[in-house]
Input
Amino acid sequence: MGKHFRDGIEKLRNFYIKRLLESGILQSTDPKLTSLTISELKGIYKKAFSPDDK
Output
């Protein structure tokens, strides 16, 4: 089960990174890109792609 869990986490991380790179929010040359956690990536993603509540 450990390998499946790691694979799933990696796929989720890659999903967020890919979408944020495609949108131009993050740059592939950004040194912090590899150090961001999934929670941080998810927060950036939600902030960028969620409709504004105002």
User: Anything to note?
Assistant: The longest helix spans residues 2-23. Residues 18 and 24 are 10 Å apart (CA to CA). The helical segments are 2-23, 38-49. The two ends are 43 Å apart (CA to CA).
